[in-house]
Specification:
Blueprint (H helix, E strand, L loop, with lengths): L10 H12 L6 H7 L3 E11 L2 E7 L4 H10 L2 E5 L4 H13 L4 E5 L18 E9 L2 E5 L8 E5 H8 L11 E6 L6 H17 L7 H12 L2 H4 L2 H16 L4 H20 L3 H29 L10 H23 L3
Antiparallel strand pairs: 1-2, 3-8, 4-5, 4-8, 5-6, 6-7
Helix pairs in contact: 1-2, 2-10, 3-6, 6-12, 7-12, 9-10, 9-11, 10-11, 11-12
Length: 335
């Protein structure tokens, strides 16, 4: 298979970009993320992840590709499996046809991944593009690894069928048909419209902008709800989500700012440049929140060290929510 591996900032965008490149489509990671409506927020306190409330700065695995496929009229097939052997047989049959196959895997037991970056995260995206003897050829766009890796049958089966929250259950995704050309202006407007609906129109308070406000309100009570050790653990988890896991909150905001900049040139809408600047500033604020949260997790309770309080950090998150709400309300006018 004549598959070409390229690096990316985010694993799902990178997997999509490489698969599309294989079929002759050159679309930037920023456009993939924006058209695929990858920007999001979830905080569901009664669902536990590593014994802490579930928070996510991303949509569900493969959702970006599914949204992108709708807007660009690609035919995309996704499939999960109950029986592990069937999932591996399906993969082998696709590889025999020289079809590059995306797969969702868990990080905790991924052999080539740096140990310090592993964790109970079952939403990592890779591309399997071939098989040589008993080893599968893996394209992993994560920036801090070589990227062109190999896994044995058992290793790949293990990470495809990891247990726990949001188990991938062997999920595969691949393209079955590609149109002759892409209507980018229409796809961009569709992606923006979907992102606005996802962030602004949620009726349940755990999702989108409402989820951000809810998360900030919940944090106000952390000092009463948790002892000092558990409080620091929750704060450290938030830092991981913001800066380390799956690109993180600030990283996704930077990607979306990049999307708006590119979109402005494609659909010739100058206001998008201004909104892109606002989103860039929001990414900076998320990064500042991560820094102050990390300082709290390390130095809270120490004498003569000035740090932000939990109430101040929660207040900054509420400020972010207000700024993001304004961005998406401004974007509604674009269409």
């Amino acid at each position: 298979m004549n598959y070409q591996h390229q690096k990316a900032e985010h694993c799902e965008n990178g997997a999509i970009k490489n698969i599309l490149h294989h079929y002759g489509w050159e679309i930037s990671e920023n456009l993939i993320f924006g058209i695929g409506s990858g920007i999001y927020f979830i905080h569901v306190p009664y669902i536990r992840h590593e014994n802490m409330p579930l928070s996510m700065f991303r949509t569900a695995p493969v959702q970006i590709f599914q949204n992108l496929a709708k807007e660009l009229h690609l035919k995309l097939h996704t499939q999960r499996f109950i029986i592990k052997g069937n999932g591996m047989k399906k993969l082998d049959k696709l590889l025999e046809k020289e079809i590059p196959v995306g797969a969702v895997v868990g990080l905790n037991h991924l052999p080539y991944f740096p140990m310090e970056l592993r964790g109970e995260f079952n939403g990592h995206h890779i591309v399997v593009y071939g098989k040589e003897e008993d080893r599968y050829l893996i394209s992993d766009t994560f920036p801090l690894i070589k990227g062109k890796e190999t896994l044995t049958y058992d290793e790949l089966k293990n990470v495809r069928f990891t247990k726990g929250l949001l188990s991938p259950r062997g999920q595969l995704f691949y393209i079955t048909k590609v149109p002759s050309k892409a209507d980018l202006p229409s796809a961009i407007k569709g992606g923006i419209s979907r992102s606005c609906n996802m962030m602004l129109q949620q009726k349940i308070p755990y999702f989108g902008i409402k989820g951000l406000y809810y998360f900030a309100d919940q944090m106000m009570y952390w000092g009463k709800r948790y002892d000092a050790k558990e409080l620091k653990r929750n704060i450290r988890q938030m830092v991981r989500l913001l800066e380390e896991t799956g690109t993180g909150g600030s990283g996704f905001r930077y990607l979306y700012a990049g999307f708006l900049e590119e979109a402005a040139s494609v659909i010739h809408h100058t206001k998008l440049h201004l909104i892109a600047d606002q989103m860039q500033n929001i990414g900076d604020l998320w990064r500042y929140i991560a820094t102050e949260s990390l300082r709290y997790s390390k130095w809270a309770g120490k004498e003569n060290i000035e740090i932000k309080t939990i109430f101040e950090i929660a207040g900054m998150i509420k400020e972010v929510a207000q700024k993001e709400e304004k961005v998406f309300k401004d974007l509604i006018c674009i269409n």
